[in-house]
Design goal:
Order of helices and strands: HHHHHHHHHHHHHHHHHHHH
Distance between the termini: 61 Å
Structural class: mainly alpha
Helix content: over 70%
Shape: globular
Number of strands: 0
């Protein structure tokens, strides 16, 4: 067993953290949290010989933990340690590294919670650095972060796919000189955007390009070295193939999509990277009817409870998935009282919590599910559920929360046109 802390410091020497920390994918998420805490303490010691680099390492560890666990306190720690790195900077180059760490934290905040204000803040930080960063690794890293921001803006009304694709192509070109996690993340973003555009436009050329990029990522990221990146690429392949199978009404392609999701699930356990596990699980259940990647040996109930409690986009989607199961059970039992209790719980939360737009949208989706179930049991109209779901989808899309918007639109597609 390697000596975790010592090896991390060795890798961080030479300003190559963004290149070398990909092997953190092999580390259990709880071990990662412990090392992030220890690194934060070490960085704050007066005896620390390189406080700037120590704070940057702490920020990188906290970001990775937040990305894999959804823990809001880890995201906050990532921001605070990046600010400490900026305070400890001794020159413009070190200051630029710290500001890029802050921008990466803003991008991660958007991924976890949505909200265009996070991207606006990241854009502001990037623009401040334009023309100030050195050539080489710092310039390439900035290009990669900028491309990530533009890709996410494309999910909102503030960006467009063509512009985002141009930034992604440029970032891949610059980052390709040195492989690392940021390059893989940008390639995943490019493949995802290409795949979505190809499906929307039914463009075989774009679909083929996305497939080749994802296959290259799978081959470049073996499970014994980069299991999470490999799983993300496999899951994206599965989602794309399942979408095409639905369009073409192909049972064979649907089965191939199922196999790709199964392969993604086999790369890691639920407690190794809860967010990745839940993402694959939800994508699989949305893409393949009746599918699940639950395994009896994993303590998934506890993992689900923890993720729902984060109130991230993914946590909210899991809460909606859980509510959907409760609604189905109540309907199957003809239990109107249970449906009333579920509706009362959602309304009470809406009244007391003053939720963010994404959380509001999820509760509206839940109320629509309940209204539809009651209507089927009582053989009467469910009311304006189509309007509710359209508004929920619009609110989620305004926040860049496509996962939630897709759930609203998926349910909308099951509402009879006469409603």
């Amino acid at each position: 067993m390697f000596e975790f802390g010592r090896d991390l410091r060795r890798l961080f020497d030479g300003h190559q953290a963004d290149q070398d920390l990909g092997w953190l994918e092999l580390i259990d998420v709880e071990v990662l949290r412990g090392e992030a805490r220890r690194q934060t303490i070490d960085a704050g010691r007066t005896t620390c010989s390189r406080p700037h680099q120590a704070w940057l390492l702490a920020a990188a560890l906290w970001r990775e933990h937040a990305r894999r666990s959804g823990a809001p306190d880890s995201l906050q720690q990532a921001r605070l340690t990046a600010l400490d790195a900026r305070k400890a900077a001794r020159n413009n180059g070190e200051r630029a590294e710290a500001v890029m760490a802050l921008a990466e934290t803003m991008v991660l905040s958007f991924d976890l919670y949505g909200g265009p204000e996070s991207l606006t803040r990241a854009q502001s930080l990037i623009q401040d650095l334009k023309g100030q960063t050195a050539q080489g690794a710092s310039s390439a890293r900035l290009a990669g972060i900028h491309a990530q921001v533009m890709t996410r803006l494309a999910r909102t009304d503030q960006g467009d796919n063509l512009q985002a694709m141009a930034f992604l192509d440029q970032a891949v070109h610059e980052l390709s000189r040195r492989s690392g996690p940021l390059l893989d993340a940008v390639k995943l973003d490019r493949a995802s955007l290409t795949l979505l555009t190809g499906i929307e436009q039914r463009d075989a050329r774009l679909l083929d390009q996305a497939g080749r990029e994802l296959r290259d990522l799978v081959e470049a990221c073996p499970s014994e070295r980069r299991p999470l990146t490999r799983a993300r690429a496999l899951a994206m392949c599965g989602a794309g193939l399942s979408a095409l199978a639905t369009l073409a009404d192909s049972a064979e392609a649907l089965e191939q999509g199922r196999a790709l999701f199964d392969a993604a699930c086999d790369q890691f356990t639920a407690d190794h990277s809860p967010m990745d596990w839940a993402t694959v699980t939800l994508a699989r259940s949305m893409s393949v009817p009746g599918a699940t990647c639950l395994t009896p040996e994993a303590d998934q109930g506890q993992v689900l409870d923890q993720l729902v409690a984060t109130r991230t986009q993914l946590g909210l989607a899991l809460a909606d998935e859980r509510l959907d199961g409760e609604v189905r059970e109540a309907e199957a039992n003809g239990d109107l009282l249970a449906l009333d209790r579920l509706a009362a719980r959602l309304r009470a939360r809406l009244a007391l919590d003053r939720p963010r737009p994404t959380a509001w949208a999820v509760d509206q989706i839940g109320l629509a599910r309940i209204a539809l179930a009651r209507a089927r049991l009582l053989d009467r109209s469910p009311g304006p559920v189509r309007l509710v779901l359209v508004e929920a989808s619009a609110a989620a899309r305004d926040e860049g929360a496509l996962l939630i918007a897709d759930r609203a639109e998926h349910l909308l597609g099951r509402v009879p046109e006469t409603v």
